[in-house]
């Protein structure tokens, strides 16, 4: 019995070792690429192995890649259009192309981020930054360079089995002296714009007052031209009749006013 038991134990241990090497567990957000050393190497003619348990031959191996979106932070040194040192802090969102995972492993390897993505983003950033002056990079062109870096990087990654999702420029750092000079210039421009705005408001108010005065003068001229002596007498008679209807005590003296108009004397 002991002679039979020992071989069984050895066989059991061997089976456990084989099963341990044959069972591959792929976690969430990952996928595996199968490698067959006794066949054609990397298996590229079938989809990548998805999440969960997989049984493979013990002489084969599986390389697991994260296929979720990942982030790469880069600090890139570049030169502006006038040759000044610029530092770009950027975040790159990317992920490997799931359907080309085997090709990525075969042609670029597990370190594809260092071999493909980093050189592409650095080259693109330096190319884009070289088109602008430090002032443009610091103020008005931040969104533009972000879009251009994304476009340029995406072009460089064509056929590299890497999907670029977004490029985010977090900060553009200039030499301290250049930054201070730009801030002074921007402040002076803002003050000039504010002064110009105040002048425009003052000119607009003066023009409004001039137009208002001209309108009043014109109205007075029209009124004066229309008020003849007969019209004034008629208005006076109408006013006299209205006042005569009042219940207040009064004395009306006919023909005692100017131009023969009635004169009304009241107790108030």
As laid out across the biggest beta sheet, the strand order is: 3-2-5
Radius of gyration: 46 Å
Proportion of residues in helical segments:
40-55%
Number of strands: 10
CATH class of the domain at 70-179 equals Alpha Beta
Q: Largest sheet at a glance?
A: 3 strands, antiparallel
Strand residues, percent:
15-25%
Topology as H/E string?
HEEEEEEEHHHHEHHEE
Multimerization status: single chain
Give an account of the 3D structure.
The chain has helices spanning 2-22, 101-107, 112-129, 134-138, 142-156, 176-226, 229-244, and strands at 23-26, 30-36, 41-42, 52-55, 61-66, 70-79, 85-96, 162-173, 250-253, 263-266. Strand 6 and strand 7 (85-96) form a beta hairpin. Among the domains are: 2-66, no CATH class; 70-179, 2-Layer Sandwich (Tetrahydropterin Synthase, Chain A). The chain is built from seven helices and ten strands. The strands form four sheets. It has a three-stranded antiparallel β-sheet. Strands 6-7-8 form a three-stranded antiparallel β-sheet. 16% of the residues are buried. It is an alpha+beta fold and 268 residues long. The model has no long low-confidence stretch (mean pLDDT 80).
């Amino acid at each position: 019995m002991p002679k039979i038991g020992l071989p069984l134990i050895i066989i059991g241990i061997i089976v456990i070792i084989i099963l341990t090497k044959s069972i591959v567990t792929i976690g969430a957000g990952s996928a595996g690429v199968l490698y067959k050393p006794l066949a054609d190497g990397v298996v590229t003619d079938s989809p990548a192995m998805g999440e969960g348990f997989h049984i493979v031959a013990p002489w084969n191996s599986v390389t697991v890649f994260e296929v979720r979106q990942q982030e790469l932070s880069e600090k890139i040194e570049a030169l502006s259009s006038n040759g000044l040192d610029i530092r770009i802090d950027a975040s790159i969102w990317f992920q490997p192309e799931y359907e080309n995972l085997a090709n990525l492993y075969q042609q670029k390897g597990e370190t594809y981020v260092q071999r493909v993505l980093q050189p592409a983003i650095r080259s693109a950033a330096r190319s884009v930054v070289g088109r602008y002056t430090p002032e443009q990079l610091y103020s008005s062109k931040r969104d533009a360079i972000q879009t251009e870096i994304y476009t340029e990087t995406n072009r460089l990654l064509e056929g590299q089995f890497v999907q670029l999702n977004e490029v985010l420029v977090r900060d553009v750092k200039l030499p301290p002296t250049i930054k201070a000079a730009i801030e002074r210039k921007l402040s002076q421009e803002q003050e000039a714009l504010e002064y110009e705005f105040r002048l425009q408001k003052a000119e607009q108010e003066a023009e409004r007052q001039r137009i208002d005065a001209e309108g009043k003068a014109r109205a007075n001229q029209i009124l004066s031209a229309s008020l003849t002596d007969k019209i004034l007498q008629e208005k006076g008679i109408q006013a006299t009749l209205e006042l005569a209807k009042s219940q207040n005590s009064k004395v009306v003296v006919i023909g005692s006013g100017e131009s023969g108009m009635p004169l009304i004397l009241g107790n108030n």
